[in-house]
Design brief:
five-stranded mixed beta sheet, elongated, D-Maltodextrin-Binding Protein, domain 2, 3 domains, six-stranded mixed beta sheet, Alpha-Beta Plaits, alpha/beta
Length: 277
Amino acid sequence: MIKIAIQGEPGSFSHEAATKLAAEMREEARIVPFSLSADAFAALTRNEVDAAVIPIENSLAGSVSEHFDLMLSHDVTVVREILLRIRHNLIAISGAALNQIDRVFSHPVALAQCRRFLADHPKMESFAFYDTAGSVKQLVELRDRHAAAIASAEAASYYGAQILVSDIEDNPENFTRFFYLRRAADAVPDPNANKLSLAFTVENHVGTLVAALSELAREGTNLTKIESRPVHGRPWEYVFYVDCQLHSPGDGIRAIQALRAHCSMVKELGRYREAVR
């Protein structure tokens, strides 16, 4: 049995993604929750867990910037990704009724993704909480019939709560992309990998970023994402994170070699199979 670190409580979307990824990879897993993402990464690098599953991007809310920084600063690699359809539910303790609810707790992103439902129920005042599943856990512990949480169906089942209203998110095209991470030294190359994630920096000169991206284009790699993050301690300098589709294993090697001629730093974050909906 392998141990997989997540940030969040049992029953969270990260928990669901970790369980599905382990099943896809035919691994029996025990999920180890951490309050902070930094603690999950530290546990992985210290060999306290075997893997970690982290959200990297939501189709509506955008990227999880902290996780880009943590991947760059830790010796880990992406070995798989998964797309998880995010379904939000209004959850209460057993026996509570919808007309009793006057307070709703959840993660700020989840609350923002359910604005229409909350606007249609003006009696319900929303309160930000550190985790979707954590809000259900608190709800069950307090046994408050006038409070509810917004979280997954898995969270309701895990903590023995009931779903009052299902699928309350504003937009059904709500997906989160999760990365499955291993220590770089332990990762086994996937011969079917068709996607590459990279981080790189360029010198602050005219045309250096264009030259770096042109090299990727010349190698025939299809750039599917680019993200910039500030370099800590060096104002107005940036790390660029890119995802590229690969046609063959050699594409990744050539892309990295081509970038090195124009970049002051290049780090491969992982080669893996692209997730499909």
